[in-house]
Amino acid sequence: MRQSCRWLSGVLVTWMVGFAALPAQAKPHDARIPLHEGKLHVADLTAAACREIHLPAWQLDAGEINLNGWRGSLFVEAVNASLGDGCSITLSDDALLLHIDPEKLPRTLDENKHALRTFVEKETPAATAAHARRWGLFLPVKVDASRPIVILTHGLNCGRGTLQSLGELLEQNGFQVGYFCYPNDQALSDSTQFLAEKMAALREAFPGVRVNFVAHSMGGLVARSYIEGSSYGGEVDHLILVATPNAGSKWTKYHLLLKAQTDIEQWRQDPDWHASWIITEGFGEAARDLRPRSTFLKQLNAGERRPGVKYTIIAGAHHPVARIGAKWTQALANAFPERTHNWWVLGPAQRGLSREADQLRNEAGSSDGPVAVASTRLPGVDDFVLLPADHASLFCCVDGAKPAALGTIIDRLGR
By three-state DSSP, how is residue 237 classified? Predict the structure, then answer.
């Protein structure tokens, strides 16, 4: 209960106060909330918050927060870090003092998202550290700096697990493989900066090392943004973009459902999962940046391709519905007993189902599902490969088949 109370209180302080409809000319002021033997009643906090931001009185009776000891100091530190000079907390023997400076409060939605994310990161340090261990640049145990490193990068609502099968296949073909993973729901500019930091550390550890990026979907935008940005370190030979929405994707409207699915899978499969990860992963900024004509995409696409870097685009023209339909149709055809193959009516029906499955497997369309073929194209890139595969089967092992892009990737990396 105490943990949930701290969360709720942090949300109230960072979200409600952050969006406070205070006049811009309002002066800094303080609010005093009584403590009860070092414990803060959440009802007192919500009432004070509503009063300070001029909302109707509302008291949420959700228990109390023990502000004594280390946990209490951690809560205070988290609130102060999240809202900075706009809202700070100090403790006395019998009260919590809330200092508010209206001019310094976060005002925009993104600023408030950042504040809430900061609060949760600070208030749950163990869970934050466990989450952070999933992110970064993961290299082979032994790096041969005389050979290029192929770095695989995942897309939205994915992680290292989606990269593993392709990585193992590339290793079997003699390539040295690394993985770049990042909080995939945060702003793409933050992911770009994170990649830049990891690449700088790589160059420092292995001077002169060469890198080839193979990036799936949104990961291609992160890699592109780094390579074509001001923090680029000059170490990349080849950028292979697989199903990357260079002009955005309309599937971002399903983002909340996809994120919920990802969060549920993490909760079920990862023993270290913590509810705070839902927030520290990001608050939908990535989906915002993936929208067609987003500010991020406009800025990225206004630039030019990086001289000295080879670009390859691999796109899919097969909708996942067609792949799934082919699988089900073929399963229905296979359900017929072998003795009926030459029977009247049943034999032709089975053969017809098999033909329909083949047509579905080879059906060409204008997208791979989430990403339109037109969106993958990029001015200045002539090496464009279109394959009869959907968004997932291009890059991942699906239904026992190897990634459809594997052959093209191996060919381009070998050039």
Answer: strand
Residue of 196, 194, 167 whose CA lies nearest to 179: 167
Helix, strand, coil distribution of the chain in percent, nearest 5: 50, 15, 35
- Per-position b or e across 204-243, b if 16+ CB within 10 A of its CB: eebeebebbbbbbbbbbbbbbbbbbbeeeeebbebbbbbb
The DSSP call for residue 173 is T
Which pLDDT tens digit goes with each residue over 393-409?
999 998 889 999 999 99
Q: Return d(Cα 67, Cα 83) in angstroms, integer.
A: 19
- The per-residue pLDDT for range 164-190, each reduced to its tens digit, is 999 999 999 999 999 999 998 899 999
Tell me which residue has tokens 């003092």. Answer: 97
Distance between CA 106 and CA 90 in Å, rounded?
20
Distance CA 98, CA 267 (A): 35
Q: Quote the CA–CA distance of 91 and 33 in Å, as a whole number.
A: 10
Q: Report how far apart the first and last C-alpha atoms of the chain are (Å, whole number).
A: 59
Contact status, residue 14 vs residue 116, Cβ threshold 8 Å? yes
Round to whole Å and give the CA distance between 187 and 67. Answer: 33
3-class SS at 199? helix
Q: How many CB atoms lie within 10 A of CB 89?
A: 19
